[in-house]
UniProtKB/TrEMBL annotation:
Gene for this chain: dusA
Chain sites annotated for binding FMN: P14, M15, M16, Q68, K137, H169, N209, G210, G211, G231, R232
Domain (DUS-like FMN-binding) ranges: 12-316
Site description Interacts with tRNA, residues in chain: N95, K181, R184, R297, R300
Protein name in UniProt: tRNA-dihydrouridine(20/20a) synthase
InterPro entries named among the record's database cross-references: Aldolase_TIM, DUS-like_FMN-bd, DUS_fam, DusA, tRNA_hU_synthase_CS
HAMAP family: DusA_subfam
Family of this protein: Belongs to the Dus family. DusA subfamily. Belongs to the dus family.
Residues annotated as the enzyme's active site: C98 (proton donor)
Listed EC numbers: 1.3.1.91
Organism: Leptospira perdikensis
Lineage of source species: Bacteria, Pseudomonadati, Spirochaetota, Spirochaetia, Leptospirales
NCBIfam families named in the record: PRK11815.1, yjbN
Cofactor(s) required for function per UniProt: FMN
């Protein structure tokens, strides 16, 4: 089995409105090695926007971190990939998996699976401009092009174009009639299709995504593909990642306690509040820290009741630790 692109054995999926820089900093306190992804950033936002720093800035502590781009123009994507590389991102990822109406209206996301030649051009254009890995996150298909043969054709073309790695959400996307949330649960998971891709493309690094929630599931998938990407479970239960560095990266460092994570988040919150924002912009991401633990509901209520009040600051975390 070909080794995966560096750092990507275990990763946290790009999720709109969730995987912003505050969430990524928080997750980095739990795992030093799991690959983190930005929310999708469109080429229009980068090329026509007036404040790239707003979309692209991140803390050095977030490495390794990948920039996910949304677009359908090879030239524009290549230009944005170069900008992302110059910002210091460790990987450029192309979104060919999002099924939302808003994304489809821009002719990118999952609907691009109907245009494998165009996606191959997008990959080749980005590869011509950057030295960091260029990867594609996609579905196993879309309605109307949902057979394994369609998937094989898509992957073969982007493979020839030089894609460094693919991340495959093991569901098709239904482009009409389902919400993005429904598209994450209603189409059945077809893990076997992803395993088959690895058999058919043994030299291509392949990461599996979709419905994975436990370390036993992760271990099973890693026996068949190169990497595993975790989505909603990483947000709802972030401390799932407490064992990632030891189990999958050979770390000898002791596993962190939740209270240590909260304590180390305090200076970050303080520094952010000096510059911008409200404390709830950060603390909304840590509500799941005690997921499954006794007192989890009280913890969430304690934070929620306080983080939206006027003048709320990092002292909430200090109070939370001392409870």
């Amino acid at each position: 089995m070909k080794p995966a692109v560096p750092f990507s054995r275990i990763s946290v999926a790009p999720m709109m409105d969730w995987t912003d820089r505050h969430y990524r900093y928080f997750m980095r306190l739990i795992s030093k090695h799991a690959l983190l992804y930005t929310e999708m950033v469109t080429t229009g936002a980068i090329l026509r926007g007036k404040d790239n720093h707003r979309y692209l800035s991140f803390s050095k502590e977030e490495h390794p971190v990948a920039l996910q781009l949304g677009g359908d123009s090879p030239g524009s994507l290549a230009e944005c990939a170069k900008i992302g590389e110059d910002y210091g991102y460790d990987e450029i990822n192309l979104n060919v998996g999002c099924p939302s109406d808003r994304v489809q209206s821009g002719s990118f996301g999952a609907c691009l699976m109907k245009e494998p030649n165009l996606v191959a051009e997008m990959v080749a254009a980005c590869k011509s401009q950057v030295k960091v890995p260029v990867t594609v996150k996609h579905r196993i298909g879309v309605n109307g092009k949902e057979s394994y043969e369609d998937l094989y054709d898509f992957v073969s073309k982007i493979n020839v174009a030089g894609v460094d790695q693919i991340i495959v959400h093991a569901r098709i996307a239904i482009l009409e009639g389902l919400s993005p949330k429904e598209n994450r649960s209603i189409p059945p998971l077809r893990y076997e299709d992803v395993y088959r891709l690895k058999q058919d493309f043994p030299d291509l690094s392949i990461v599996i995504n979709g419905g994975i929630k436990t370390h036993s599931e992760i271990a099973d998938h890693l026996s068949k593909v190169d990497g595993v990407m975790i989505g909603r479970a990483a947000y709802d239960n972030p401390f799932l990642f407490q064992d990632v560095d030891v189990l999958y990266y050979g770390s000898k460092l002791p596993v962190r306690l939740r209270e240590e994570v909260l304590s180390e988040l305090i200076p970050y919150v303080r520094s952010v509040l000096v510059r911008e924002g409200k404390v709830h912009h950060i603390l909304r991401h840590i509500l799941g820290l005690y997921h499954g633990e006794k007192g989890a509901r009280e913890y969430r209520k304690f934070l929620t009741d306080r983080m939206h009040t006027n003048g709320a600051n990092e002292s909430i975390l200090e109070a939370c630790i001392s409870r």
